[in-house]
Amino acid sequence: MTPRTIKKVFLAREQAEGAGATVRRSIGTPNMKYLTPFLMLDHFNVAPGAGFPDHPHRGQETITYLLEGAVDHEDFAGNKGTIYAGDLQFMTAGRGIVHAEMPNQSQGTNIGMQLWVDLPKELKMCEPRYRDLRGDEIPQAKSQDGKVNVKVISGKSLGVESLKDLAYTPVWLLDISIRDGKHTQEIPANWNAFAYVLEGSVKVSDGETSRQVEQYHNCVFEQKGDDVTFESNSARIIFVAGIPLDQPVVQYGPFVMTSRDEIMDTMMDYQTRRNGFERAEDWESEIGKTMGRVY
């Protein structure tokens, strides 16, 4: 096994997003524009009265992992529901979706992670779909000494494998907690990988050198190597890895395609309500109407 070296470490700074929400964005910024297949990573904080009212997507998948609170979802196909702390929602925008994501008005502050994953070119125009994963469905792995606990949302850790078919693009997503311990995490060959430090700080080692990575920093690894080692007195890490896609990324806001012409076509489709956006005509979400209300 060959340890991976660190490519880059940088702070995810707070910024405004949506309507009244704040996010710590790491991927999708000048520090790291894209890391195929990943387009964006947001650590979001949304209070009641704020949120992400009706908006479109095409060409990507989103993975939302809620850490605290509750978030409602509603789209123009009639899908609706709520995820709670520990739950995930996997959304494939495909050829087109218009939806709203708003904090549940019965809760306080809502905190979570949202990861945007690129779709392979041949699946950009697939039908949209959703899959929820409840917290009690997620397999958990523990180290023999009891100092490391891993929620295996997608992928494999400490010999425990996740549920299958959560996203079209192969992705590993692990929630790793370390208390006075050390954890070596395997990584599939040639996949891109990074670790976002959610709580505490962690020492990352490549076998010869080590570096301390602090809270709210994203640690991006080189593509070569088989594993990475984390050591901490107290830390919680969101570890992500994914298979690289050999295709251009052309993004305009919530639309992600592989050429400028496809983006222009997408904008026209959305404006004229066709080719996947037909159901957006005269549609308005109910949860989006809670915008600005605080109970």
Automatic annotation (TrEMBL):
InterPro entries named among the record's database cross-references: Pirin (IPR012093), Pirin_C_dom (IPR008778), Pirin_N_dom (IPR003829), RmlC-like_jellyroll (IPR014710), RmlC_Cupin_sf (IPR011051)
Cofactor note: Binds 1 Fe cation per subunit.
Cofactor: Fe cation
Coiled-coil stretches: none
Gene3D superfamilies: Jelly Rolls
Protein residues bound to Fe cation: 55, 57, 99, 101
The entry's keywords: Iron, Metal-binding
Keyword Phosphoprotein included in the entry's annotation: no
Positions of the Pirin N-terminal domain: 22-117
Domain Pirin C-terminal: 174-276
Domain of life where this protein originates: Eukaryota
Pfam families: Pirin (PF02678), Pirin_C (PF05726)
Molecular function in Gene Ontology: metal ion binding
Family named by the database record: Belongs to the pirin family.
PANTHER family: PIRIN, PIRIN-RELATED
Name this protein carries in UniProt: Pirin
Organism of this sequence: Corymbia citriodora subsp. variegata
